[in-house]
Batch of 3 targets.
Target 1
Amino acid sequence: MGIVFYDCATAPSPRRARMVLAEKRVDHTRVEIDLRNGEHFSDAFRAINPNCTVPVLVTPDGETLADNASIARWLEEMYPDPPLFGVDALDRARVAEWLWRAEFEGLMAIMEVLRNSSKALEGRALPGPHRVEQIPELAERGRARAYRFLDILNARAAETPWLAGQSFSVADIAAFVFVEFAAWVKIAPSDEHTGLATWLEAVRARPSASA
């Protein structure tokens, strides 16, 4: 049994794992899950992941990894070249720092906006099988957080080629998906974000950006 990857081509979260798979050139079988029509809530998919979310990666040994953190770490251990979590102690620390910031200050902010403002997501303000009502104020807070993080990314990109330093990493993947995801709620870099524009161009030139 090879690697099986449960994906959704239009969703931001599995795109992160898809980019890691592409960067590491890992052969796998891809299974598309139709989120729009609720396939992730089906009995068949609940048997794979009771949390009803993608991405999910099933290892050749049959172990199920159901979040970006575990999927990326497993892939790093099993396929260390190219390294995406850093190459020495300080490098790994910087990757951890910027990955956390991309997730907390960026991706979570956009999730707050989308899930607390979209009519299509009423009762689904948080991912998963449980009903959670929207809080409009969180959408406004998320929007402000996202704009702040664009400024932070711009400043960092003016200092160093990649977020953690000299090497492309999972932090860059998470931040790139944040910028792309932000467009869903009409949040985008401004013309003044020149450092961010240069960084985005470099990420988009990588084959994994099209994965």
Target 2
Amino acid sequence: MAHKYDMAVFIARMQPLHQGHLAVIETALDQAQHVVILVGSSSSPRTMRNPFTFEERKRMVEDALGLAHNRTLALRVHVAPLNDYVYNDSMWLQQVQTTVERLAWQIGYTNTPTVALVGHSKD
């Protein structure tokens, strides 16, 4: 199956992971060879607003997609942490770009891949 993009990037807090997140991920998998899921608020302490750690949310994604039982899919989905930078959008954007570039290199892209930013239409 030919994909429109090399990589699709989905940024979400996933506190908790829900069916809407999974629908976006499924759509991204249809559109791109690789899906990068950047999990926001990754270094934030547990609070009522952020009850789960990054590792717990990463495991939720992996379990919901069945990555432990599907090696082909596991090679296409990449989950990485994304920290918050209060009042510093340029640092946050730089972190997003650096993380995507690092993952593209680790995946094996030697040229600049085609990248799509995916999410819910309200975002």
Target 3
Amino acid sequence: RCDVALQFGQRVYTATMVKARTRAKTVRKLPPEQGRKRAAFARSRARILASTVELLAQVGPSATFEQIATHAGVATSTLYQHFPDGEALRTAASLHVLQDWERWMLATIAPVSGDLEKLSLSARLFLRSGQTHPNYGRMTAYFLGPIVEQLPLHTNTITSHIHALATKHLIATDHLQERTAAFVNCLFGGLVGQLRHEDPARADYDVELALGLLGVPPAHAKFLAHTKLPPLTKPKA
């Protein structure tokens, strides 16, 4: 069975590489003016998303397509060139600000040794995102319902991290899906509480409880959740 799996994997890899080379050749053959148009389109989309994040963090879900266009300084028709409707734009903006926070978070936890230590620190940073990334924090609170509906998109990094910890037997391995869901729900609930009333001690206690849901022994969970934090200054763009 291992041989069959290896052969299948090789076929998938080969097919993927062929498609990648084909796409690469297509990109290289693009006329200069088409390449410039594509780059301009990407820059326009990025500006619209950044502006949308800014407005949604201030106004919340009530922001209209027209308000977003005005805030971005573009025509409504320009928005439609990038997004089919307001829901698609809000979803893209939510993911855009999430990715911005995740890049910062991953860079912040990179120097930390220990997989469980990295998970604990990422959770503590998440509950402080209202301080480091106010737009991300506010949008998470405003759009908690839609985010829950798209939870796999928003929790892909942390879910992968938890599964890696389970593989190494650093956390409990039974009922992993349920434990992961409980961990994530605890963090999202904690973030909403932090945005209403900033309380670092409470944030760390929530992380301690969340780690316990993954089967981390109480004493170790307490240590991980209350150890000294690195500076929480967001790098300048």
